[in-house]
Amino acid sequence: MKRFGLIIAALALCLPATQLAAKTAPIGGARVVVNEVTGKIGGKSVTLRRGDGVFENELISTGDKAQAQFQFIDKTLLTLGEKSDIRLDAYVYNPRRKSGRIVINSLKGAFRFVSGSARKAAYQVKTPLATIGVRGTVIDGFMSSDGQFSVFILQRGKMIVCADGACRPVNKAGFYVVVRADGSITKPRQWTGRVPGITFTSAFPAPGGRFYVDPSHYYQPGEGSGGAGSTGPTGGRGTGQSSADY
Question: How does pLDDT run across 167-176, given as a tens digit for each residue?
């Protein structure tokens, strides 16, 4: 794990911010891959494996009973649950100034976002129903498959959730909001493992479960921790490092 951090840091120092945003330069790598996870960029789709690099504008998708975790150059951690889609919309990062623009677009499914070493204003998490500003944050998010609602749980730090021009700050860990398709945002409520009036059908550690590959930082009402898995060695378009480096 320490070697992974050193590799990410070395990559950040060697590449200027403008080059980090280029499609040819990886912006991070896969730490954990469980079952089928694919990356698509420029119309080409590939199977991702542990140690593979990921790129700006890439669409990452997980299949049935699949999960993945990625670490970016700024040490942001992004964990995906099964049947999830996330696009890495923008990634420009200056490691010396800790400035830039980092935009993650969660299109469906479940995710955990752990902000890295960039300045707070650099981060933005987008979803079909809302946009989230983060402040030294760990967030769990879930988007319903029918697009009717999203749930965002603050695990650490602060977040502000905006939809249809209205914003709702969440400043206390262990509280959540629900955003519905009509643009409404509920008041923050304490997370108990359930959301009134909503039934979750996703098997991923979305609301109602733990994150399988990254149990740290989780605000939880008393569940046990899970393990981690991998599909195997580095794939064909990796960062140039073996899977043992991650």
Answer: 999 999 999 9
For residue 14, the surrounding DSSP H or E stretch is helix 2-14
Q: Residue with structure tokens 């049935």?
A: 64
Give the H or E element holding residue 127.
none
List all residues 6 or more positions away from 137 whose beta carbon is below 8 Å from its beta carbon.
113, 114, 115, 123, 154, 155, 156, 157, 158, 159
Does the pLDDT of residue 194 top 90, yes or no? no
pTM of this prediction exceeds 0.90: no
Q: Which amino acid is at 3?
A: R
3-state DSSP call for residue 12? helix
Please report where in the chains the tokens 């991923």 appear, as a residue: 204
The DSSP bridge partners found for residue 102 are 91, 123
| Confidence band, pLDDT 50/70/90 cuts, at residue 220 | very low
Beta bridge partners of 57: none
The angle formed by the CA atoms of residues 69, 35 and 24, to the nearest 5 degrees, is: 55
Give the up-direction half-sphere exposure of residue 104: CA atoms within 13 A in the CB hemisphere: 29
Four-point Cα dihedral 119, 62, 27, 44, nearest 10: -140
> How far apart, in whole angstroms, are the C-alpha atoms of residue 240 and residue 117?
23
Beta-bridge partners for 78: 70, 113
Domains of the chain: 2-210 (2.60.120.1440)
Whether residue 41 contacts residue 61, with contact meaning beta carbons closer than 8 Å, is answered with no
Q: Which of 100, 23, 32, 119 is nearest to 69 (CA)?
A: 32
